Amino acid sequence: MKQPNTMSRQADAISPGTVEDSEHDAMYKQEHSDREGVTNTGESPVRPDEAGSQGATDSNKPERQQPSNGEPVTRNTKVDHDSISLSASDLNLWYGDHQALKSLSMKVYANTVTALIGPSGCGKSTFLRCLNRMNDLIPSARVEGNIEMDGRNVNSKDMDVVALRRRVGMVFQNPNPFPKSIFENVAYAPRMHDIVGGRAEQEELVEKALRDAGLWDEVKDKLHQPGTSLSGGQQQRLCIARAVALRPDVILMDEPTSALDPISTATIEDLMVRLREEFTIVVVTHNMQQAARVADYTSFFHLGEIIEYNDTTTLFEKPATRKAEDYITGRYG
Amino acid sequence: MAQSFDDITKQLGKRHRRTRRLKLTCMAAMVLSAVFLVVFLGDMVNRGWSAFQQGRMQIEVSYTEQSQQMPLTAVDEQYRQLVSRGFFRQIPQRMEADPELLGTTRTQWVIARSSVDQYLKGRENSLSEQQRQLIDRMVEQGNAKLAFNTTFFTTGDSRMAELAGILSAALGTLLTIIVTMAICFPIGVMTAVYLEEFAPDNRFTRLIEVNINNLAAVPSILFGLLGLAIFISFFGVPRSSPLVGGLTLSLMTLPMIIISTRAALRSVPDSIRHAAFGVGCTRWQVVSDHVLPVSIPGILTGSIIGLAQAMGETAPLIIVGMVAFMPDPSFSLTQAATVLPAQVYSWASLPNQAFQEKTAGGILVLLAVLITLNAAAVLLRNRFERRW
């Protein structure tokens, strides 16, 4: 670990500790040693430069660290993880002949922030798009396997994608508000789905969604200006408001801050943490500090496989696999 | 050792000279094309301008019983060869319509014959020396003059140059274009929407695409032959009518509208489509609520330019018989009609000097309409263009 202390501080900052870090460590050690038969009694986490030289320890690390039922290895005890929001099992995806997802299984817990990390082309965005079937738009994509949500298979033919996307919202990498007014951006989808009727109801809903997205105070006086007139960060929050307005169960975010400056990024990260009270958030990110800051669970992807799926603190402080450790410490990717 | 600036500059001289040469060549090409345009327009304006003026004379017309029978006797003998024959023809009708005229003599402005008109404009004419002197005298007294040619815009074609106008051709063009647009716009836009937003990308749709693109390059006269064979011979649509002309032109305009609409749809960024799909729009909602509103300026621009091209088209309309001689303007889809370019074509083939200026005048009117349409297209594009 590069900066283990910083990491744990940040993780604590987002969900003020209900569980002592030492408990995590103990739990981790317990599982780790049970599984691997290695007793790691080291007082402090292994530093990357040291880890490189410790060939013996490294070779003992498993290739993959995840139960086949898709659950994270270590539970995050700070969040209520009784209910499962989405559950992918044995998910395969091909783009033409290229297999982009290889037999993935992953459970996403309700009201958590789950981060998907991994090097470019590892399939994390592809996986994210499977969750609301955006891959349907890519003619060459072929998906097999189950994604269970609310007792239904999202991936089956008889699942109506419109109904699915009504319950699984999405925020994209580049802010893409509709070329309409701010008000219309938020009110459009609820009106389309017949969630709201009259003007008064719409106004109420727009205000609530914009407040949820932390944008209300900045735009309340210019609701009828084009959404595209806002700054990049504001646009992205408008897109979040647009997704929130439908009151979905899950909000998918595909690198939502990669096109934004640090201040906007911080705002949106705060937002994600706040929104998980009501929504389940799955976020793809290239920024590992971001994952460490906002996510309750983190899944590390590599070449279309989940290498390690774990409680965020555990994954960042004591990665169980060599690949995850190398990636987190910035050795590649 | 590194090269000095002087060494490098010496080598660069050749490259800079080449740039200058190329720039000059391009500039010369631009000047040449501008000159062509100016010469063409100047020539047309020069020849056609006088078509908007018309020779008139102020003479005494006596409405008697005799002149109702023999209209020529209504005016003094010396003017009989100078006043338009069309005026004499109207005398009996006018007297019938207005019985009070009988027995009165009125001094009034009448349309002069085209030979007088040409003489007043200083062109070659068939007047005798005596007649010329008479007209010169009338001009001095203010009894003969050139005035704005309202006849040109209010009548149909005529064998008498001074009475020939473009109204029937303009109406024919209007009807034809309405038919063309009514067919082309919905079919073309819907085809483009299907190909761009719905159709899977497979061998079949690619074949259709290639064919549509090729259709746009087919010589227009072939569309005329097709219209003749299918619409007239097979479906029995009345020939020479704006209906058959519009149908034929729509064959020609359709591929252009499809191509320009597809380009407009393609220029809408996918991020907007993704955003719409992401909030649970159906495919049709994505198109109607998000893609079409932003692409409408492009679609309109393409359609207007397609329409302008159809308006200027002559060859296919000649094949389906739309070069009819149309003295009476009619506003019917199934009656025989003519169109502006066909009117210009038929005037151009007449030997009479006076018709030559009508030809140029007709071209000017057509040009003015086309330029207006293109300007409208540009305005629409600027007006509705949105940033995203």
UniProtKB/TrEMBL annotation, chain B:
Query: What domain of life does the UniProt record list for this protein's source?
Result: Bacteria
Question: Any idea where the ABC transmembrane type-1 domain is?
Answer: 170-376
Q: Which InterPro entries match?
A: DUF3333 (IPR024573), MetI-like (IPR000515), MetI-like_sf (IPR035906), Phosphate_PstA (IPR005672)
Regarding the membrane, this protein is recorded as: Multi-pass membrane protein
Which controlled-vocabulary keywords does the entry list? Cell membrane, Membrane, Transmembrane, Transmembrane helix, Transport
What Pfam families does the annotation carry? BPD_transp_1, DUF3333
Q: What is its main location?
A: membrane
Keyword Phosphoprotein among record annotations: no
Where would you find the membrane-spanning parts of this chain? 21-42, 166-195, 215-237, 243-265, 304-326, 360-380
**PROSITE patterns on file:** ABC_TM1
Q: Of which family is this protein a member?
A: Belongs to the binding-protein-dependent transport system permease family. CysTW subfamily.
Name the record gives this protein = Phosphate transport system permease protein PstA
